Amino acid sequence: xxxxxxxxxxxxxxxxxxxxxxxxxxxxxxxxxxxxxxxxxxxxxxxxxxxxxxxxxxxxxxxxxxxxxxxxxxxxxxxxxxxxxxxxxxxxxxxxxxxxxxxxxxxxxxxxxxxxxxxxxxxxxxxxxxxxxxxxxxxxxxxxxxxxxxxxxxxxxxxxxxxxxxxxxxxxxxxxxxxxxxxxxxxxxxxxxxxxxxxxxxxxxxxxxxxxxxxxxxxxxxxxxxxxxxxxxxxxxxxxxxxxxxxxxxxxxxxxxxxxxxxxxxxxxxxxxxxxxxxxxxxxxxxxxxxxxxxxxxxxxxxxxxxxxxxxxxxxxxxxxxxxxxxxxxxxxxxxxxxxxxxxxxxxxxxxxxxxxxxxxxxxxxxxxxxxxxxxxxxxxxxxxxxxxxxxxxxxxxxxxxxxxxxxxxxxxxxxxxxxxxxxxxxxxxxxxxxxxxxxxxxxxxxxxxxxxxxxxxxxxxxxxxxxxxxxxxxxxxxxxxxxxxxxxxxxxxxxxxxxxxxxxxxxxxxxxxxxxxxxxxxxxxxxxxxxxxxxxxxxxxxxxxxxxxxxxxxxxxxxxxxxxxxxxxxxxxxxxxxxxxxxxxxxxxxxxxxxxxxxxxxxxxxxxxxxxxxxxxxxxxxxxxxxxxxxxxxxxxxxxxxxxxxxxxxxxxxxxxxxxxxxxxxxxxxxxxxxxxxxxxxxxxxxxxx
Length: 691
Fold this sequence. Notes:
about 5% strand, about 55% helix
């Protein structure tokens, strides 16, 4: 006897037709509900044609949906395995049901023999995994609903405001955000009755599936029922039933109960948080192939057509961005890693997504749903983007709304002063062009205007030419390039701000003006390679100047120094073990995926808890360096505390912005402890001067 299973056991044709009607009706209702969302997405800007290939679509789905890449890399100790158990258990059961249907309606019957035995074993065990995952989710969500989840526990004054009046339900004040009159706490995971109903439905679906299998075994036992260990165990517990008629009646009752639940599940998916199962496929597959550090360029033609700059309503975003809002799992991973939320500010990336989705539904102005205070608190560090399982690009959304606010004159204070300084002096610091050469005095630095031949343009940047600490880095890099025999030159007074602070603060056309100014200089000197010690300049020149008319090879100074050390031209630094801790800049490690080069420059570097792509932001990006904030709400304070906790007496950085922010934070967190702050280039220079 060949192992197999009879579909629709004991069912008549009218009963089968009733089942088809039930499933078809529920699926149709589900599609009809999703159609409403699709119509809202279509209000957005279309993406450029040909921006994504079918190969990329498939690859993205394999990596991020089926491979669950973002979930597997999550820092959550229980959330990730729980989600994986539910996802892979559900997908296995869905595949098993699909294969059963294909076998039923295809002329070729393959549901038998060895294949059938493997099918039964795998689906049974994975069904158990699914049920365990759902129970796990229920318990975990219940426990989290009773306390605020704080994966980055504050220490001392660093989190004073974030933890003021902490009680059983978590922070009460600093994380509060009012939208439509409803209060939102800073807990990144919020639980609603709908979530419990969803979990209950999934649990009952899983349990009744096993119950149905157990009843089938009792009604129609087969020698190969050992391949259903869970169903077989339940059948054994049910005991022996007398009378085939009563057995069939019970079996059919359970079958119909399970079938109705399946129909209810399909009909309810669009109303449940679990809808991201479907939404995420489209969002992940069609994600724009843009570097994380590249913002959308706005043309004057677009402004003339729309009569606005940036996004004032949800319809101003791309269709993909709008679709990604519906893919949101509301898991709170973005909020967990947000440096602003971590120190008690009102910015909550999850609520940015949810509020914008509500604005889309109502046609309301985006800035009315997302508080302006929250929008200006973003450091554009992209920690939320890196953590998001469905690849939502929160920073794109925030900056586009900022652009509209800036165009309406709603940016004031030091940040507005920074924009005026950049426009008038071509320096975010407001220093005259002539001062960009002050650091060169007595160093014999070659200048492009003097006709110097060079392989690399050494881009100094506003901070590198102005801030005293950053100037130390600039001098160290220049001396190392000389020692290594690298042919380089600087622009000096011809160098202008790249426009990074202006663009991320929302002044798009000031960025384009500075970019055009610099591109004309690059063209004049036929610049092909650039090296810079500023990750913000590095990101802008590498990822954004191509759209402004200039493609070049751009290197961060740690990358070029790593290459020179690898060739034996320079020596790596060897600081005393346990003395130097490394801080990774967001714009280098997370946004541009470069964590190897900094670590290749020195041995014995201590790693803080959050390192590499999981680094904590210093708080300077997105124009935040020029915005006021209470000392106790500085993201740099939390990072400084973590670096001090390594036991190091020296912190090595690779970014002038980080150097400035951490310099203040280290003094604030440990005013009585002397912590040295150096750039990695300075460590390498010291090692090469000693040889």
